[in-house]
């Protein structure tokens, strides 16, 4: 029998910031092996304080018995001028504590972020993931995402070891 998540999914609050900042560092730590172009620590991807207070951003957390165990966000991004949509919802900040993985929490968060995005009028919903991050790719495909575009780069001479 598969265990299911018994906690709640809710909007992030300013009081959650210390844990959200920890989640951000865990995401950076997990992504560092996939991206040799990431700067040196200390490094930050997001302005989480601003995002939590922004009504045009949806940051969700999963909470289990008062402890934050996962996160994700949806934000509006401007589309390239040649696309058939002006803006799209971009999902990111996906993190689940290791001991809570495999319970479907990421899928619950994505479902709620998609719902929020559609309620805001977004017909296009995207995210990015490192091509070598197969667990993440499989998780996103499981909730309906399809591969769309591959970004390529020429490795620096120092990376060809």
Outline the secondary-structure elements.
Blueprint: E1 8-11, H1 17-31, H2 48-53, E2 58-64, E3 67-78, E4 87-96, H3 105-119, E5 125-126, H4 134-142
The major β-sheet equals:
5 strands, mixed
Order of helices and strands: EHHEEEHEH
Specify the number of helices.
Answer: 4
- The end-to-end distance, rounded to whole angstroms, is 45 Å
Form type: globular
Structural class: alpha+beta
- Share of residues in helices: 25-40%
Mean pLDDT: 94
The protein's oligomeric status is single chain
Strand order of the largest sheet: 1-2-3-4-5
Unreliable sequence segments: none
User: How many strand units?
Assistant: 5
- Approximately how much beta-strand content do the residues carry? 15-25%
Radius of gyration from the alpha-carbon trace, in angstroms: 16 Å
